What we know:
Elements: H1 4-18, E1 22-28, H2 41-45, E2 50-56, E3 59-64, E4 69-73, E5 79-83, E6 103-110, E7 116-122, E8 129-133, H3 156-163, H4 170-175, H5 185-195, H6 215-233, E9 276-280, E10 283-287
Antiparallel strand pairs: 1-6, 2-3, 3-4, 4-8, 5-7, 6-7, 9-10
Helix pairs in contact: 1-6, 5-6
Amino acid sequence: MPELPEVETVRRGLAPLITGAQIKGVTLNRPNLRFPFPSGFAQSLTGRTIKAVNRRAKYLLIELDDGMTLLSHLGMTGNFRVADTPLDQPSRLRPAAAPGKHDHVVIALCAQNGQMADLVYSDPRRFGFMDLFAREADCAFLNSLGPEPLGNELTSAYIASRFAGRKTPVKTALLDQRHIAGLGNIYVCEALWRAGIAPQTLALHLVTPDGQPRAELEALVRAIRDVLAAAIEAGGSTLKDFRNAKGEAGYFQHSFDVYDRRDSPCRTAGCGGSIVRVVQSGRSSFYCPQCQVEIS
Length: 296
């Protein structure tokens, strides 16, 4: 499933192509994705101008000129592409391309220079979904999310306030979107390895008795920021289906230190251990028991 770096990669690819374009029409090739489309979805989008393309956690947010926001979650296999000629090319009118088998939403766009193109959402497994909302507080998908992991609100003191007294494993706690928005299984595994923390460590053990972050928690915050920044720089990770707005795969999977590297040597200098896989709350955790310490 695309995580924060993959969605940010899509956002960065789409923003320069579709910002400022007017939506001339919307074609829905099925009545639903994971959920039904909102009532009047196509009509509400038609005639609107795209003001900005943003991201919140793992959600892509396309802001419109009437104050509404189009929210899209890519699910496991969803992707956007701008079909045919990009909107920043010289003006020419061209016929719309025939939709592919898994092209479920086609948004016809017209740039300020008159260039026409289609913004196409494709999703073979249809685990993605879309919504329209006026304010984030009114959106059920966003209103309970924690702070962005790359934003100024994410500090070791903040996480300490969330982890204090919690007997949940730190791996599970980091995946809870109410604590931190946008972290997924891949990058939590990678961050815990960088911080030298075993995923079974209970969240409360990263906090001192008086509620302050331990040094290991401060290292974890740095590791989260570093691994996400590196993944975004590499265009995200492609394990099976992820593609950016140009149809290209990400490259960060070639830099995984623990994720999906079961029985491979640990890359920590002088460690000598091997990566193991355990299951926590139904999710695979990859770590090195030699150099990742279970803190108590």
